[in-house]
Design brief:
mainly alpha; 71% helix; elongated
Length: 169
């Protein structure tokens, strides 16, 4: 029940963020304003990609630490903070015009903008998962962290499979 309530509240909050993003110019968001100042749509896309790469590095660190004989709880905690801090901002990284139509190389599918409800739900699932994971990581219980880490991958793939194009070869 608690997870349902958290997910529902998160979806509603994200819907509000998405509505604001549709109503405002991309420059209304500080990160987007900075990206606009540093290269317009291309800067927005570069900033988005950099944020996702930072999240990928954090996920890899978590996975590597949990495979280690003596995992560093501090490294896992620092990486969990990155995920938990970035996750709620994901929807702000996709302002109108920063998709495939921009002409800038991006793996973001048009469905992000045409299916904002589905994208918001996928983001909400990831946010809830990272929040729950971060809470468990805070306990320092490596066994519990290992169990909770199993939910991170599917939560990421939930978005990647639907809203991210495969890498070009």
């Amino acid at each position: 029940m608690r997870k349902f309530v958290i997910t529902t509240v998160t979806v509603l909050a994200l819907a509000g963020v998405a509505a604001c993003n549709r109503a405002e110019a991309p420059a209304a968001n500080d990160a987007n304003a900075e990206a606009e100042d540093n290269g317009g749509v291309a800067g927005t896309i570069r900033a988005r990609q950099a944020n996702f790469k930072e999240m990928a590095r954090a996920s890899k660190t978590i996975g590597d630490q949990l495979k280690a004989r003596n995992p560093s709880v501090e490294d896992i905690q620092a990486s969990a903070v990155v995920l938990a801090d970035h996750a709620p901002r994901i929807l702000t990284w996709f302002p109108a015009g920063s998709g495939p139509e921009s002409g800038v190389r991006t793996r973001a599918k048009a469905e992000i903008w045409t299916n904002q409800e589905g994208f918001g739900e996928a983001a909400a699932r990831f946010i809830a998962t990272t929040e729950e994971f971060s809470t468990i990581v805070g306990t320092g219980d490596v066994a519990a962290i290992r169990v909770a880490q199993a939910d991170l991958g599917p939560s990421c793939r939930n978005c990647h499979d639907r809203f991210r194009a495969p890498e070009e070869e």
